[in-house]
Amino acid sequence: MYDEQITTGLPDNGVGRKLTRHEMPMLREHLLRLDPESRRDRFNGFADEGFIERYAAKCCTDGTVIIAFFEDGVVSAAAELHPPDGEPGSLPEIAFSVER
């Protein structure tokens, strides 16, 4: 696997690529900026700031891979690739979020 930037078909001010470990807090900032409807869609229900803080912190430590779309250096969309959680029968998961 390689970590090259994805640029085909994207706006001139945007780029898609994998977040580095040090950039993972950018996921939290992106999720906190989601409008109420987008946040509800992303988390399948209500998610307050505290929940998002805990969720993003867990993503930084559990092996989640984040493919982010940056506009002018700010994450405005993300695809999260979550590994299985270790429980019997658990499966990997994927989630998407896009700011309006």
Kindly report the spatial arrangement of strands forming the biggest sheet.
1-2-3-4
For the secondary structure, the number of strands is 4
End-to-end gap = 30 Å
Approximate strand percentage: 25-35%
The averaged pLDDT comes out at: 89
The biggest beta sheet reads: 4 strands, antiparallel
Question: What's the gyration radius in Å?
Answer: 14 Å
Categorize the overall geometry.
globular
Helix tally equals 3
Q: Kindly name the structural category.
A: alpha+beta
> Uncertain runs with pLDDT below 50, 5 residues or more?
none
Order of helices and strands: EHHHEEE
Helix content: 25-40%
Give a topology summary:
Elements: E1 14-18, H1 25-33, H2 36-43, H3 49-61, E2 65-71, E3 74-82, E4 93-98
Antiparallel strand pairs: 1-2, 2-3, 3-4
Helix pairs in contact: 1-3
